Amino acid sequence: MEHPAPHPTPTPKLVGSIWQGTSPQLAFIFGVIAGVAAATLVSIFILLPRASGATKKSAATTTPTNSSTTSQPSYGNVKVVGDDDYVRGSPNAKLTLIEYSDYECPFCKSFHPTMQQVMTDYKDQVAWVYRHFPLSFHANAAKEAEAGLCVGSLGDSNAFWDFTDKIFERTASNGTGFSLEQLPALAKEVGVNESKFKDCLDSGQMAARVQAETADGTNAGAGGTPTTFVVGRDGKTITVFPGALPYSQVKTELDRALASG
């Protein structure tokens, strides 16, 4: 028995215009609307690629060509040297190097001999001021900074510098590289009364000054340690050593600053 062939899908017949039976006025209105819509659609397709290209071009021009330039620090003039500062070298020196430093900073430890060499080579031409800038992630740094100031207040400038030299010689510079329990013994070693030192350190009387020195460094543009400002006799910043620069580079900058003055 033969199966009947499937029926083909019928093709619809156009029996008349969609406007058939519509008034001429209404047909005209519909025609105008359809024309405007078609023209608008064509304009969108023409203009869209241009707009897209303009957007991409605009975005490209707002992208910085060198992102590192936006992160460069901006330095200003540091707080003038006062009677309470600890100065190594001649107070009448042509240049003063104001260093913001951290006793537990490994870069400060490596830079300290460089500064000592500067004082040997430049003698009365350069003075060195040490200010505290303990970093928050170095657990012992702030208390060690207070200890240095206690030593200076109970002793003298020589005691302060002796204490500072010995801290950098002996610390491992890992944030807790010099034990806080050993601070009284070190104070005694540099000639300070141990009992009075303990009273000064335990009372926290130098904490505010440490914070003030840190704030002074921040205001001048120091964002890390060591940061050393090279200052002329007028108190204005001539140049800055941002970090533990090698001696050769420090010497070049100092020679330039001395020659220009």
SSE inventory with pairings:
Elements (H helix, E strand, L loop, with lengths): L23 H39 L24 E2 L6 E7 L4 H17 L3 E7 L8 H14 L2 H14 L12 H7 L4 H10 L3 H14 L6 E5 L5 E6 L4 H14 L1
Parallel strand pairs: 2-3
Antiparallel strand pairs: 1-3, 2-4, 4-5
Would you write up a description of this structure?
The protein contains eight helices and five strands; from the N terminus they run H-E-E-H-E-H-H-H-H-H-E-E-H. It is α+β, with helices and mostly antiparallel strands. It has a domain of 174 residues: 3-Layer(aba) Sandwich (Glutaredoxin). Strands 1-3-2-4-5 form a five-stranded mixed β-sheet. Helix 3 runs antiparallel to helix 4 and helix 5 packs across helix 6. The radius of gyration is 38 Å and the shape is globular. 30% of the residues are buried. The N terminus is likely disordered.
At a glance:
The chain has eight helices and five strands; from the N terminus they run αββαβαααααββα.
Keywords:
261 residues, Glutaredoxin, five-stranded mixed beta sheet, 8 helices
With strands numbered from the N-terminus, the spatial order across the biggest sheet is: 1-3-2-4-5
The chain-level structural class is: alpha+beta
| Strand composition percent | 5-15%
Rg calc: 38 Å
CATH top level of the domain at 87-260 is Alpha Beta
Distance between the termini: 119 Å
By CATH, the superfamily of the domain at 87-260 comes out as Glutaredoxin
CATH A-level architecture of the domain at 87-260: 3-Layer(aba) Sandwich
At the fold tier of CATH, the topology name of the domain at 87-260 is: Glutaredoxin
- Quantity of strands, as a count: 5
Q: What is the residue-averaged pLDDT?
A: 81
Instruction: Give the count of helical stretches.
Output: 8
